[in-house]
Amino acid sequence: MERKLPLGIFLLKMQTKERTPLTVIPNNVYMGFLGGFITIMILALVTQMSANIWLMAPFGASCVLVYALWDAPLSQPRNVIGGHFISTFIGLVMSHLMGNSIWAIALGVGLSISCMVLTKTTHPPAGADPIVVIMAGSSWSFLFFPALVGAISIVLLALIINNLSPNRKYPKFWM
């Protein structure tokens, strides 16, 4: 049987004197702006010019990862594409089984996180996909437009934009 942690000790675990390890690297500032701007502009323009939606809100957060934290494991192509595909799929299943309910949204996010971890495709922005899908009442086509095609587009643009910088090599891994 597991022992309960006293409240005082529990609260002390949240106390720290550590500072953020993040540093401001001017090239990351520039590449983050350039990559995010170009990627979202292209996805928005293609959406405007076509019959399909290529853009959803979590893609903005994906741009933060692929351009500002481009070398992090969660920013790699496998994670961007796999994470959005898996989470959108789970969101659609929950939506079709349970409708637009609090339970469907919560279960969709929880299952998405678990499945991304199990498949080694963890991508934090994709955790929002079930919320987007369920609240919008999306159809199965959302799995392809914008989720899959949009995620692939982000990766393709990140391959080009990140590798324009002599200090970057993207991706760090594919599989």
Quick summary:
The chain is an all-alpha fold and 175 residues long. The protein has 7 helices and no strands.
Question: What does this protein look like?
Answer:
Helices cover 61% and strands 0% of the residues. The protein is mainly α and 175 residues long. It has one domain. Helix 2 (26-49) packs antiparallel against helix 7. The mean pLDDT is 96.
Largest sheet: number of strands, sense, barrel closure: none
SS-derived structural category: mainly alpha
Element pattern in H and E: HHHHHHH
Residue stretches low in confidence (pLDDT < 50, at least 5 long) are: none
Mean pLDDT: 96
Share of residues in strands: under 5%
Count of alpha/pi helices: 7
Shape: flat
Count of domains: 1
Give the helix level as a range of percent. Answer: 55-70%
Indicate the radius of gyration in whole angstroms: 18 Å
DSSP strand count: 0
> Quaternary arrangement of the chains shown?
single chain
End-to-end CA span: 40 Å
